[in-house]
Amino acid sequence: MKKTLKAILPVGFKANGVVCGLKKSGKLDLALLYSEIPALASAKFTTNSIIAAPLIVSKKHLESAKEIQAVLVNSGNANCFTGKAGIKDAEATASYVAQALKIAKNSVLVNSTGIIGKKLDIAKIKQGIPELVSGLSGPGIHKAKKAIMTTDTLAKEVSVSLKIGVKSVHICGIAKGAGMIAPDMATLLCFIMTDAKITKQALDQALDAAVNKSFNCISVDGCMSTNDTVLVLANATAGNSVISGGKDLRDFSEALECVCLDLAKMVIRDAEGATKFIQIDVCRAKNYQEARKIALNIANSALFKTAVFGENPNLGRVAAAVGACGLKIKANGLKIRLGSLKQKRVKLAVSLSRGKASATVYTADLSPEYIKINAQYN
Description:
L-amino peptidase D-ALA esterase/amidase, globular, 9-stranded mixed β-sheet, Ubiquitin-like (UB roll), 10 helices, 2 domains, 14 strands, alpha/beta, 5-stranded mixed β-sheet
C-alpha cells in the first residue's frame, strides 16, 4: 500500500469548489464531487436525534437509488433546525445539480455545514451551480477540499493505492472538522472516493470497520453535531476482480481504515484552539468496548484536557475520569503513565488489570482559544 497526504482523485471522479456567497469571508463555500460512472455508496450519519435537512434528503436518496453520481456540499450554513422549509431547500439544491449534470435527482446527495438554525440561501447556491459544474476536473478536488471547511485552519486530505490482484486500486479522502467533534458516528464531514470494484455488502462492512477504529475514536469537545456524515463512493473503474471477501476485502479494508484514521488524526491536530495532540491508550480491559469507553471518558474530561494545556501532570484527573465510567474499576489495579507535557504530542497509557483488550483514542487539549472561537461563532 502506498500513501500520500494529498488528494488525488481515482479515475472517473471529478470535483470543483466555488464561492457562492454563503460565507461572509468570501471564501470558497460550495463543493461538488462527481462520478462520471454511477457509483455504489455507503454512508454513516450522525446519531444525534436532531438531524439536519440535507441528511434527511440524502438518506432518502440512498434508499431509493441503487447508485450515486454526485455530492453537493455547502459550508457557511448547516440547514439544520429549519423545519419543512429546510427539507424543501435541500431537495431543491439536489434538483439543481441533477438538472445541470443531466442525472437523476435521487443520484445526488447533499451535505451542509456551518451555522445551525438559519435558513439556507438557495438562490446563492443555484447561482453558483453552473460554474461549479462547468469547472469539474481532477485537480478541482483542491478547491472542493477548501470549500467544505468552516473553522478548519487546514484542509484534510489523503490518498492511498493498493493492489487487488494485478490491478491498482485507489482511494482518496477529504474531510472537514475542528470543533463539535464527538464519537458515535459521525464526527465531521468526510468524503471518500475509490475506483474499486466491490460489492455493496463488502463496502458497508469495510466502512463500518474503518469508522469504528477512526472517527469513532476521536473527540475534541464531546459535542456531537447534527450534520455529521462519512460517505464512500466506489465506481469500479479500476477493473479489478470484484471484492466480496477474503484477502481482497482485508486488504481493501486496511487501506480504507488507513485513510479514515489519517483524516481523523488531522481533525484532532486541527482542533479548535488546540496546542497538544493527545493519544490515549487503554489496555488490559475486559473487552474492546470497555477499553474504548474508558479512553473516551478521559478524552472528554475538561479537567484532564485543561491540565494538559497547562502542562500540569495531575494524574488524579485521569483516575477520576476512569472511575466515573460506571464500571467497577479497582484502584489497586489501575496504572497510569503520562508522557511529557512539554511536547506537542502527548501520550497517556492506562492499564486496568482486568483482561487483555485494548483501545486507542485521540483528543486535544482545551485552551482559552477554544472558548474564544466558540463564544464568537454565529
